[in-house]
Fold these 4 entries.
Entry 1:
Amino acid sequence: MLVLTLIALATTLGWVGTQPQLATSGADTYLAFGQGSTITVVRSTDEGLSFGAPSGIQVTGRMALGMRRGPRIAASSEAVVVTAVVGARGGGADGDVVMYRSTDAGRSWSTATTINDVPGSAREGLHGMAANPTGLVVVTWLDLREQGTRLYAAVSQDHGATWAPDVLVYASPSGSVCECCHPSVDVTDAGQIAVMFRNSLEGNRDMYVSRSRDGRTFDAAVKLGTGTWPLQGCPMDGGAVVLGPDGVVAAWRREDGVFLTTGSGPEQRLGTGRDAVVGQVDASKDVAWSGAGGVVVWRAGTATTTTLGAGRFPSLIAFPRHTLVTWEDQGRVHVRTLPR
């Protein structure tokens, strides 16, 4: 396949901060990122073509931030939910998944609510969140309440207003999932849930997905791709997952490669890099990752990749008319749109 590298010419928006994340519901799109003890949220009413004034959430304690640690954001038809892992000491010494909720499109925020039931069990600082329009919100995190790292989740059925007790999603028979790779989650409009994580199983660090129809019980985890990665250590790279018309669509790293899987099919190598994220609209799949020259975007159906500029840790949303991408570089958050 011929691969060309193009430089995007669109104007870049930027703010001071790190670890940006995107969410959308209806006509609204939200961007959240962190700096020190502040989470900043900005809202767009035109699918990320422009953004309004920022809104700040002041965190009480020390927020996990960096290497995919940082705030997560999700939006339903009635609320915007922001989560972060926060502890009195931080730095892996303690930490809980705390939630802030807005019912006025991010103009004001509730006080913090702790989601995990066992205090300090989320201290690794790595978590994921997703929501659907009807108010199902799912948070998943690496949990340390017992010896070894396990994967837990909690579910809200009312736009984040109340939360059910924690549930165990997966415990590795080898004693621990991969200790420093963030999990990710997606939720369909019909309430289907998919949680992806990097496992540590018999010396291999491969990607697995567990699915649920009710948020209380999760199916047996299924390995993605046909290859495997024997590795004694953590690559600190958890990829991303969406649930599309073809089932689970996931982008992830193995060794130096970025791969895409759809359903139960074999993996497709897209390029060299790490920090992969994925989005889908209709049949269109978009993937972004951190490459040697900066943030790279690949879109299905084309023979090109697009290099946006220096930086790492992208997040993206696939819209019918464009792809919205955000990333960080040297303490600043950047946003660009790529027309289809």
Entry 2:
Amino acid sequence: MPYNGKYNPSNQDAYKLSRAKIELFLNCPRCFYIDRRFSIRRPPSYPYTLNSAVDSLLKNEFDYFREKQQPHPYIKKIGINAIPFQHKMLEQWRKNFIGVSYLHKETNFHLYGAVDDIWINLDTNELILVDYKSTSKQGDVNLDAEWQNSYKRQIEFYQYLLRKNGFLVSSTAYFIYCNGVKSNKKFNEKLNFKVKCIAYVGSDEWIENTILDIHQLLSKSRVPVKRKHVIIVFFVIVLNH
């Protein structure tokens, strides 16, 4: 049975490793090590309840077309021959802390991540990963900001998991990006959105080496030193000589 929490190198059971923790490793290996080896976590961020509400409404809407096995208007607008994907595991794949999972045998990591939605291309039988995003900003939404690289890695990790489960997966994914309109003169108890479907061609080539690097780090008995500390020590040594 896979276990969570503190990583124990001597434990023979599979260790649960989520997409969010892999992202933490990429951002700060030291923070990741302290989190996984000592269960000392970063302070949690505020819950994005409005974003979660938008996610739920989009899921409900796509499920309506999933049941009918018809393309959603957004899919028609993109111009691909696809419909929402039906599968007995879909509800599990969407659940936080469960998601799509895969046992990485080389490291004994139980990798997992919860998807927002999956479509299927009827011409190629490829699965298409879909992620919902919501914001409220001036101008058009895009994926050009450096901080949005985490969104791209997120979708690539989901593509990787589904491929490891034996599915044929398209490299092209879609972000359904909802931008809340703030310029209306009246509220009228409604929040309107401009919705944009952004195509993104992903690559999961980075994932295998990253998982191996994580395993190597967690197997160590010492907390990794921040690079800037190493630089400071180097200059102190130079100055003393």
Entry 3:
Amino acid sequence: MTELPSVKNKVFVDSNVLIYGHDKDAGAKHVTANKILRELWDSETGVLSMQVLQEFYTVVTRKIGTPLPKSIARVFVEEYATWWIETTPIEISSAFRIEDIAKISFWDALIVAAAVKSGAKEILSEDMNAGQVIAGVRIVNPFASLP
């Protein structure tokens, strides 16, 4: 009997998780995010959107305590680009519906729409309502148990 290949559950990563993973001044959040990102690399299950990559680059080069050099941040963007899921006008229209139904910001709705398109079952985010299921995707705050 032939064994079926295992289905890998995709996990959508919001920018805050990505940022903490590269912000060495973020303490326990850095440790947690770094571990998550390594696990997603190893399992090949991480996904994100262009919106996340853009926010990541802007924040890590300008807004964290010890900003990354642009050259280093650009390398990270190129590496994470392999996780990228394209958003199109279809996802924008979907985000409009999600925004209205879930009563969340358009930008969060666009994250949800991208996650849905990618087939992700979870969105890792500190900024969204943990435990909420939006358009079939569960919001998980990986930092909720940290002091």
Entry 4:
Amino acid sequence: MKSTFCDKVRSGAFLVTSEVGPPKGTDLAGLVASAEFFRGRVDAINVTDIQNAVMRLGSLAASVCLKQNGHEPIYQLTCRDRNRLALQSDILSAAYLGIKNILVVTGDHPSAGDHPQTKPVFDLNSVQLLDALRGLQEGHDMTGHRLDGTAPRFCVGAVVNPGADPLEPEIIKLEKKVSAGAQFIQTQVIYEPEKFRHFMSLIRHIHVPVLAGIVLLKSATMARFMNKHVAGVFVPDALIDEIERAPDKRAACVEIGARLIREIKGECQGVHVMALGWSDLVPKVLETAGLPEVA
């Protein structure tokens, strides 16, 4: 029997994940096509939940679509858009539909998206949602009422930003997430291996797999945008110059992504590769980085 993502998390294997974003509509052909590039190369595929606060098809529906197409999805669930009733209900719905992995995230503020007049919810923060998830897996809701039937079972993940400044509050929150039930961690994008090594040296006491976030660098414009607008992310000038001067941006993107993976893979238990529309490059990045196909 093929090992599940949760089996691999428990085994201590080096993990590889990537992600897809649901469309702004009901045509899932593009999502399915993107996921095909990951077949045999990643252990699971994140499905983003209204990423960047831009209205899209729901993560749960897209996760079920991936499952039906033979992939193992990681259902992302944000605190931004739902109150505790809806969050718990969606978790139970995911369990009923056979989804086995959930990644809990806070979510970008709606003011950053395409419906800036939206009222944010944030009824629960990410630690509280993790705690609610643990309760549901124990067979009760947040008020202590028992659930009918078999309690759901998930492999539960959370996120961390190794580039946060200051780092101490981020590490304290990470400790709380793990205490609340997070079984694996995915990080914000990393372009500075030395800073990532320092961060990992500070969390050696946290014994859950950490997957380092790698965003494929597509252009100097993209790099400068992240430096200006994405908290805790800094693309060094040398990388900006490299991608700007490259005659073949896609080839340079592969080389930079693979190099970053090679430089940090000894410090962590996996990588999470975010392609941002260049999903077809992910297999080449992983191959160039020396990562084998997944079992």
